[in-house]
Amino acid sequence: DQQVKQNSPSLSVQEGRISILNCDYTNSMFDYFLWYKKYPAEGPTFLISISSIKDKNEDGRFTVFLNKSAKHLSLHIVPSQPGDSAVYFCAATGDSSYKLIFGSGTRLLVRP
Amino acid sequence: GAGVSQTPSNKVTEKGKYVELRCDPISGHTALYWYRQSLGQGPEFLIYFQGTGAADDSGLPNDRFFAVRPEGSVSTLKIQRTERGDSAVYLCASSIGQGFGGQFFGPGTRLTVL
């Protein structure tokens, strides 16, 4: 049973517009959430994270929102750029902070 | 390059053979992790080393899989009697301590079992 779900396998957005990537989780013990970005033939790269004590974290063009009651988080990219085209993974962790539980990823394409 | 390196980048083997996958973590990183990413899925945790010892190997799928880190730096993931279902990208990550956001991933080894 998948504990972290990314239900949209792909997303296409026009350059300059907002990209919204969604993630749902089932385990209420998760207390830290992360987004990773992955280019082909490279390993995942950490992008942004959020603790369960917050509902929003912002870093430049990237903002992550956490809705604990809905067990849902989202990543907003504004404005989107062609270089943002990659696969984005949502991950979560709980008591064992080293063990990341990943979603299946969303492939983002930003069209010029 | 100061990043995590993995060798080989690609490995093709036949069913039943033995393979070794190597990971060179970032210098000074005491924690090392192995993940496996199957097609269309996210990375799946396999094992975590703190120093030389495997602190958590609960993600290893069965006893055909084994990993070592004898000197607390380089790690080798060993797979015996490979099966077609073992085909995946094997990712290694390292961090300074036990830290999630600080996990730096290597490019992975793509293993294909024919």
Outline the structure in words.
The complex is a heterodimer of chains A (112) and B (114). Chain A has no helices and 11 strands. Chain A has 112 residues and is an all-beta fold. In chain A, a hairpin with a 7-residue loop joins strand 9 and strand 10. Chain B has 114 residues and is mostly beta strands. In chain B, 0% of the residues lie in helices and 48% in strands. The N and C termini of chain B lie far apart (33 Å). The mean pLDDT of chain B is 93. Chain A binds chain B through residues 4, 6, 9, 32, 34, 36, 41-46, 49, 89, 91, 93, 96-105, and chain B through 4, 31, 33, 35, 40-45, 48, 55-56, 59, 91, 93, 95, 98-108.
Outline the secondary-structure elements.
The complex is a heterodimer of chains A (112) and B (114).
Chain A: E1 4-5, E2 10-14, E3 19-25, E4 32-38, E5 45-51, E6 56-59, E7 62-67, E8 72-77, E9 86-93, E10 101-102, E11 106-111
Parallel strand pairs in A: 2-11
Antiparallel strand pairs in A: 1-3, 3-8, 4-5, 4-9, 6-7, 7-8, 9-10, 9-11
Chain B: E1 5-7, E2 10-13, E3 19-24, E4 31-37, E5 44-50, E6 53-56, E7 65-68, E8 75-79, E9 88-95, E10 104-105, E11 109-113
Radius of gyration of chain B: 13 Å
* Oligomer classification: heterodimer
Considering residues with a beta carbon less than 8 A from a beta carbon on another chain, report the largest interface and each chain's count. A-B, 26 and 28 residues
Overall spatial form of chain B: globular
* Count of helical stretches of chain B: 0
Percent of sequence in beta strands of chain B:
over 45%
Low-confidence stretches of chain A: none
* Outline type of chain A: globular
Query: Could you describe the largest sheet of chain B, including whether it forms a barrel?
Result: 7 strands, mixed
Helix count from the secondary structure assignment of chain A: 0
Strand content of chain A: over 45%
SSE ordering of chain A: EEEEEEEEEEE
Main beta sheet of chain A? 6 strands, mixed
SS content category of chain B:
mainly beta
Quote the distance from N terminus to C terminus of chain B.
33 Å
Helix-strand category of chain A = mainly beta
* Helix amount of chain A: under 10%
Number of strands of chain A: 11
